[in-house]
Specification:
Order of helices and strands of chain A: HEEHEEHEEHEHHHHHHEEEHEHEHEHE
CATH class of the largest domain in chain A: Alpha Beta
Strand order of the largest sheet of chain A: 1-5-6-11-10-9-7-8
Number of strands of chain A: 14
Distance between the termini of chain A: 47 Å
Strand content of chain A: 15-25%
CATH architecture of the largest domain in chain A: 2-Layer Sandwich
Structural class of chain A: alpha/beta
Radius of gyration of chain A: 27 Å
Largest interface: A-B, 109 and 108 residues
Number of helices of chain A: 14
Number of domains of chain A: 3
Oligomer: homodimer
Helix content of chain A: 25-40%
CATH superfamily of the largest domain in chain A: Bira Bifunctional Protein, Domain 2
CATH topology of the largest domain in chain A: BirA Bifunctional Protein, domain 2
Largest sheet of chain A: 8 strands, mixed
């Protein structure tokens, strides 16, 4: 019986060229983040269905690949609904498993704990170009640090990594969920409408101030409120001064220190950064997940019309999961997008080793054969890639192929 | 609602110490195998249920984690059996996905194709100490080479890797499925009983020649046949000469060249090897999977009472899957066992970088703060791990902890 040749819907086989870049990027991530004191950990791909359905995952909880119970636990005849059939699922992110991991192992971990995770996640999303149902996520999280040292380190680590991968001229946009809320409150929106307001605000870069205004009014909000709100965004800068003046405007509805905290993060990153990027204050930055409690950030690149990573502070999430309050702050880079951008650029992985092919004639005498392997061992010890392979009838074709694959030296061995 | 803290049954959280070793071993694997011309590839963790149930996977097909259909495709009310509910499952090995990958992408791959795969596989095995339901497999396979260069390269690559990881004094046992069968045929066992005979023979190292004899007789085989068979194993050596003399004995039932091929592999590996290991002929080596068609091999280590890897030639499997005959030979190392052995030894990953901790007093003036990050950036550029963290009230405890974690230098920064 012939098998199905294509991968399952929405997932992909990774070919050698892409794999080389993925592997290189993963090593750069590991090495760079390690110098910032992050420690790599791993959780199983399979997670309890209860943990995946705890409402912290938002829309992703609708996209779970669920795993059937096994053996006697599967009672098909008695099953009234899907929930009776499954006991686990594939993780849809690395944050839910991190919460579980931390509560399971906190006694064996330092405090604060700086975690690096690289791993696949699965979402049964509608398949579309460039988005896959299995993809790699790469998160750094600092658990147990309530100072802005966490935010600064996360931004510096991420931007150092991107610079090492030759990305230039990108922006780190930053905002604070508390400023976002204060702006809405100051303008007169009721608290229960904030999420609706933010979903519309999030479209600012696509539909502009006018478009946002129209949609807010169409949603039924008072024109006066909308105008007061959008007035805040007019002529606002993207630097420390903008945060300062906005902080003064909002001082009656904003907790003391919030604006100053954001100023300190922007100013510090701006003055100590080594990469070619801008740190910009963006009061329209929303970030989808409602679990964020403080500063939020996102990476924007002109060559890619969308976010290539983001994160923020989420001080309340782990406590909700585990029962123990733990402040936390994380930054996730869009691994798949970064790999895609590098592939599109024709990125060549630096420092790849010399490739030599040894073509062996049939029935070489034992002595010559042994000398071939000894010579190869010497080369390999020096890091040279040696491909020992049987000489084919169509030798010209074989040699052309090897040259195309990057073999710069092709050596032939014959019976004398 | 508090979440479940433990990982799902049979799976594990990987703590920083183990992760460091895993990561190092993975890099050693990648680097070493690369010098032998292997190219890394990856397939999705999720595979078509049809491909996983094609009978090539043997007993593993009973251990599949199956994935529920989604959306409208799931018709619970109409489902008569488990098969109606699932469309895919988690891969239980890397060989089935490799077959699919090769038939899907052969046009874009060189021939012969030397593939390296490192990836998790899942088996719903009975949980037991040291065996997990998610574990890493690491396979190298050469597809499209029908010469023994493939076997020799696989053994040399694997033993070079083990030597780099400081393993000494291990053995590579080798046999050939065709010799195994010829010995049984020569003794008078009917072909349909071979599998039964081999299952008993496989216990030789545990129950000895006497025990094997008793079990074969208890199974109903003629005493004469059993004695003739076991006579072959008596006084047989483990070197090239043993293969030669056995080949002569079996010449009426053994295809010409099979013994000579095995001799050449043993002799070549023996004379060109650089690591501290023995290559031994072992006529009792069976390897479970019936898909092997030629030479088979296994790694034995005294410090671990069992196999830490194995493989062999399987020239007919890919054709059965894909409809196109493709000769193939592979070697899989027991990644989890190797990591376990290194952990038990207290293995220290070589070349780990210097670790420095910077403790920051509260509310440092902006100027000092910036200098701290600049100093850290300089150190990090040199590869030093710098952990910037807020100074705690119990500074002595904090510093003791950091020292325990391997921070050799702790620097404190205060408001002046």
């Amino acid at each position: 019986m012939a098998m199905k040749k294509k991968p399952v819907t929405g997932m992909k086989d990774i070919l050698p060229k892409e794999m080389e870049i993925r592997s290189y990027v993963m090593n750069q991530i590991r090495e760079t983040y390690q110098t910032f004191g992050f420690t790599q950990i791993e959780t199983p791909a399979v997670e309890h269905i209860e943990n995946l359905s705890s409402k912290q995952g938002g829309e992703n909880e609708k996209l779970i690949f669920k795993i059937l119970k096994r053996g006697e636990k599967l009672k098909l005849a008695e099953a009234g609904s899907e929930a009776d059939l499954v006991d686990s699922g594939l993780r849809y992110d690395l944050t839910v498993p991190l919460s579980r991991y931390y509560s399971n192992n906190a006694n064996d971990l330092p405090s604060p704990f700086k975690a690096l995770q690289m791993g696949n996640v699965w979402r049964a999303d509608r398949p579309q170009r460039g988005r896959f149902r299995q993809f790699m996520q790469c998160d750094i999280d600092i658990l147990g640090d309530n100072t802005n040292l966490a935010e600064i380190e996360l931004v510096l680590a991420t931007t150092t990594l991107l610079s090492r991968l030759d990305f230039r001229g990108f922006s780190i946009r930053i905002n604070d969920r508390r400023i976002l809320k204060a702006m809405a409150a100051w303008s007169g929106f009721p608290e229960e409408s904030f999420d609706t307001v933010f979903i519309i605000l999030d479209k600012m870069d696509k539909i502009g101030l006018e478009g946002v205004s129209e949609e807010l009014i169409a949603e039924g909000f008072a024109r006066e409120t909308v105008e007061k709100y959008l007035g805040l965004f007019k002529n606002i800068g993207s630097d420390v001064e903008a945060v300062k003046s906005l902080g003064e405007t909002l001082k009656d509805v904003l907790k003391e220190g919030v604006a100053e905290n954001l100023q300190a993060i922007i100013q510090t990153v701006d003055s100590v950064k080594t990469g070619d990027f801008k740190m910009v204050f963006d009061p329209t930055l929303v970030r989808g997940m409602s679990y964020y409690t403080g500063p939020i950030f996102e990476i924007s690149m002109d060559e890619f019309g969308g976010s290539v990573g983001g994160g923020g502070r989420y001080d309340e999430m782990i406590g909700k999961f585990t029962g123990n309050d733990t402040c936390a702050c994380g930054f996730s880079i869009g691994f798949e997008r970064i790999v895609m951008l590098l592939l599109e650029r024709g990125y060549e992985v630096p420092g790849t080793s010399v490739k030599k092919a040894f073509l062996l004639d049939k029935n070489l005498p034992q002595e010559i054969l042994e000398n071939v392997f000894r010579e190869a061992a010497e080369e390999r010890k020096k890091g040279v890639q040696v491909n020992i392979t049987a000489m084919k009838k169509n030798k010209k074709f074989q040699k052309d192929q090897l040259t195309q694959e990057g073999y710069t030296e092709i050596k032939e061995f014959f019976r004398n």
